[in-house]
Design brief:
With about 375 residues, the protein is α+β, with helices and mostly antiparallel strands. It is built from nine helices and 20 strands. Strand 1 (about 45-50) and strand 2 form a beta hairpin.
């Protein structure tokens, strides 16, 4: 179905600008959540506000007008990476970009705007669609926290379109890695650095040895490791007693991932032991890898929708995570597609007007052309 005549591109742009002007850091989504509750109710959705210990998720439901079509979930996250306070925006005929030291927030507010405009089009026009479930999550940027706290028991959809991939519209994410985070607590012995340093054990020296020796960066085409945060020490005249190291490991191959994590942790234990320092390692799996097949019926549906919109689909595998990882792990076939955001997580973030519009066109095509999908088994 040709959506060009149904889309209100000025409203789409207006919605996007309103969204990016709402400051919504992770765990600070109260204002944007209220905005979206009003928007979804305006477009004929019943809304459930699902609170959890630190945040809130929104679930909107819009009744379909074609019997027998499977329900479809549309999803984006409400939070943005910081800084966004005091955002400045520059707009011209081609793009919307950050004009200051903040991010733009197109990650993921361009997706939210596209979903809102799609709901508006469905509300205003007699176009065919099945039941729609809209899931707006919180704290995605802090490790998919909102998605991990989502009440999946109240959802009916077995298929989802997640709009949270950067790049020009057309990218379809076919796989994402397992993500493991860890903390190393290194314990030495404090001593006066000027009077009796020989009685101390420097936790910073142990940490430096671990950091310089552990595998880091791109380990192989599908595995990466990074130490992102270090903290410790109290004063220059004290041999430091404690240091904390926070790192991560990502990988698509479980065996390779296990090998890299073992090398990192064994290296840390060896170095700490050699310096008589204590070491405690805690690790956590943030989300599990998934891989979709190009022959999957739902993937083929999304590919066909892009093609009907004159957009060339591109199947990609990413090293990043998204709520699609949690949805796939929970039994919902979730395809993450690009929504046009570029240079995300930087002050150079931007989105082309064309991509903002094309992303909404493709989304509407996915919604209105979805018919019976053969049952699929989540991977």
């Amino acid at each position: 179905m040709d959506m060009d005549g149904l889309l209100n591109t000025q409203r789409l742009l207006k919605t996007f600008i309103e969204l990016v002007n709402i400051n919504s850091p992770s765990f600070g989504e109260t204002e944007i959540a209220a905005y979206l509750v009003r928007a979804m109710e305006r477009y004929g959705c019943g809304v459930t506000v699902q609170e959890y210990d630190r945040g809130v998720n929104l679930i909107g439901r819009k009744k379909g007008n074609v019997r027998g079509r499977p329900p479809l979930m549309l999803s984006a996250h409400m939070d943005t990476i910081e800084p966004t306070a005091g955002i400045k925006i520059a707009i011209d005929d081609e793009m919307i970009r950050s004009a200051g030291d903040t991010v733009l927030g197109a990650d993921d507010k361009s997706a939210i705007a596209q979903i809102c405009e799609a709901l508006a089009v469905l509300a205003e026009n007699d176009v065919p669609h099945g039941d729609i479930e809209v899931v707006f999550t919180s704290a995605e940027e802090k490790g998919l926290v909102g998605a991990r706290n989502l009440d999946f028991g109240i959802l009916r959809s077995q298929h989802a379109i997640v709009l949270d991939s950067s790049g020009s519209v057309g990218n379809i994410v076919m796989g994402a890695p397992t993500h493991i985070t860890y903390e190393m607590r290194i314990t030495g012995r404090a001593a006066h650095a000027g009077i009796e340093p020989e009685k101390g054990i420097s936790a910073i020296r142990a940490a430096a040895g671990i950091i310089s020796s552990a595998p880091d960066g791109r380990i192989d085409p599908e595995t990466t490791a990074n130490i992102g945060i270090i903290s410790g020490g109290t004063a220059t005249n004290v041999v430091p007693r404690e240091v904390l190291i926070h790192g991560e490991i990502r990988g698509h191959d479980p065996r390779a991932l296990e090998q890299v994590s073992s090398r990192i942790f064994e290296t840390a234990r060896r170095i700490a032991s050699g310096l008589d320092a204590g070491l405690k390692i805690t690790e956590r799996q943030e989300y599990r890898s998934f891989r979709l097949e190009a022959s999957d019926p739902f993937v083929l549906h999304v590919i066909s929708a892009f093609k009907r919109c004159g957009i060339k689909p591109s199947l990609v595998v990413t090293g990043g995570g998204s709520d699609a990882s949690i949805f796939n792990e929970s039994g919902i076939r979730a395809v993450n597609i690009s929504n046009g955001m570029q240079k995300v997580h930087t002050s150079g973030e931007f989105i082309l007007r064309k991509d903002l519009i094309d992303g909404c066109r493709a989304l509407l095509e996915c919604i209105t052309s979805l018919d019976n999908i053969n049952p699929v088994i989540p991977v």
